[in-house]
Amino acid sequence: MTATVPNGITTRLREAGVVGAGGAGFPVHVKWAARVDTVIANGAECEPLLHKDAEIIENFAAEVLDGLRLAAEATGAGRLCFGIKAKKKGAIAELEKHGPSRRVELSLLGDYYPTGDEFELVHAVTGRLIPPAGLPLEVGVVVNNVETLLNAARAASGQPVTHKFVTIAGAVARPATFRIPLGVSFGEAIEAAGGSTVERPAIFVGGVMMGRLTRDLSEPITKTTTGLILLPEDHHLVERMSRPVTSKNRIGKSACDQCSYCTELCPRYLLGYDVQPHKVMRTLGFSALGSDFWSKWGDLCCSCGLCTLYSCPEELYPKEACDQAKAQMRRLGQKWRGPDLPLEPHPMAEGRRVPLKKLEQKLGILEYEQPAPFDGRDWTPRLVRLLLKQHAGAPASPLVRPGDRVTAGQKIADVKSDQLGAPVHASIAGRVTSASEKEIVVEA
Ligand code: SF4
Ligand code: SF4
Fold it and tell me: 88-125 as b/e, with b when 16 or more CB fall inside 10 Å?
C-alpha cells in the first residue's frame, strides 16, 4: 500500500490520536510540525526480551516505510534513514524488499544496550550530537518509533489508533507479539500468550531496564505499553527492584565506595554528556548540605538503568539516585547542561558498549530470550478500560456518557485544541458503562 500525503497530515494525525508508540506517548502532530533535514525510523529496539518492533517491520514493512515518507514530506526532510540492528535479518530483508523505491538509507546497528536511545541513535545514524537537554530537531532530525510510523500511515487514510503492538514474554508458555485492542487487561493479554508459567509472576511493564514493576493483572493496555515481561516473584531482579526507595538510598549511602564504574560505563557520559552518577551518589551522604550541588550530575541521565542493573559491582542504585536528583533539579528550577565546551564522545566509548547478551546474562534472564512471533489473532474482549491519559500532555475529557452506544474507532474523549495531548477512540463496539476523569469503560 502506498499512502498519499493528504493536505493537513498533522490534523489527521491529531484526529487519529497518534502518539509516540515506543513508550514516550508524545503527540506526533506536534513533532511533525518541525522543519528538519532528516527523519529516522527507530527500529533499534534494545530492551531485553522485547521483539515487537522487529515483528512490526517483518509483517508491515511497506506501511512503516509509508509512514517514514509521510514524516519526511510533513517535515520537509530530504534524508530518510532507518536504524535497525544488523542481527534482525528477517526485518532487514523486508525493508530491502520495500525500501529502494523510497530512498531509504538503512543504518545497521550493533547488538548493544541502549542502541534505541534517541541520543545514541541520532549520533549513530547522522554523526550529530543532540545538545545537552535538547531535542533531535535542534540538530535537524525527527525520530519516530516504527509503530508510530505505521500508525501515522494508517491515520493518513483515516484509521484512528485503537490497538497496540505488545510483546508478552518471560515466564509465559508461548512468548508472542500481539496487536491488542487498547484497554484490554494485562491478565487477558497474558492468557493469550498461554498464561504465566510461574505461580506468582511479577510484571515489568515496558521492559526490565526502563519499565516499571506491577503485580496488578487488571491494568489496561495503553498506547505506550510496549511489552509485558513476566518473571517469578523470587527472581533476583524482581527482589532488587521491589526494594523501597528509602532502603535503596540507605544501602547506597553506606556502601558506595566511589569506584565510579557507574559513570565510566554510562552511555550518556560516553557520548560526551556531563552525567556522573558516582557524584550523584554523594547526595545520599550529604543530604543535609550538599544535594543541591551534587544533583546536577544526574540531570542529563536518560534513566537507561545500566548503572544500577549492570555496572555497579555493589548492586547499588545510582539510576534511582539520578531520578531523585532530576526531581530535585526540577524543584529548584535548575537545568544542567555541562561545561560550555564542544561535545565529544569518550575515546573509549566503542570499547565500553554493553552487548545485549552480556546484559541478559547479568540480569539472569538469558533463559527467557526466545522469539516472540507476531500472532495476528482477532480479539473479542468482553470489556475494555480506556485510560484518558495515554499520552504526554493533558488528559482527554470524555465525550460520551454511561449508557451511550459507541462504534469501534469512534472518538470518545478529546483534549482542547490549544492543549498538548491526543484524543482517545473506542477500541471495540459496545456500551459505555462508566466514564470518569480517569477512564472510560466500554462493554461489548
Ligand atoms: S559503581 Fe556503585 S559503588 Fe561504584 S561509584 Fe557507582 S554507585 Fe558507587
Ligand atoms: S541510568 Fe545510569 S547509566 Fe543510564 S544514563 Fe542514567 S546515569 Fe547513565
Answer: beebbebbeebbeebebebbebebbbbbbbbbbbbbbb
Kindly state if the Cβ of 227 falls inside 6 Å of ligand 1: no
State the ligand closest to the CA atom of 312: 1
Whether residue 310 is found in the same domain as residue 330: yes
Residue 428: what pLDDT?
Answer: 98
Spatial separation of the C-alpha atoms in residues 226 and 222, rounded to whole Å: 9
307 within ligand 2 shell (Cβ under 6 A): yes
Residue 433: its H or E element = strand 430-435
Residue 435's domain spans which residues? 381-444
Same domain for 38 and 109, yes or no, is yes
Q: Which residues on adjacent β-strands are paired with residue 143?
A: 40
Q: Which of 436, 432, 221, 435 is nearest to 444 (CA)?
A: 432
Query: Going by CA atoms, what residue is nearest to atom 4 of ligand 2?
Result: 304
pLDDT in tens, 332-385: 898 999 998 899 999 999 999 999 999 999 999 999 999 999 999 999 999 999
Q: Which of 309, 335, 363 marks a domain boundary? A: 363
Q: How many domains does the chain have?
A: 4
**Most ligand 1 atoms within 8 A of CB, residue of 250, 256, 275 to mutate:** 256
* CB of 283 sitting under 6 A from ligand 1: no
**Does residue 130 form part of some domain?**
yes
CA distance 413 to 438: 11
- Report the CATH number at residue 275: 1.10.1060
pTM: 0.95
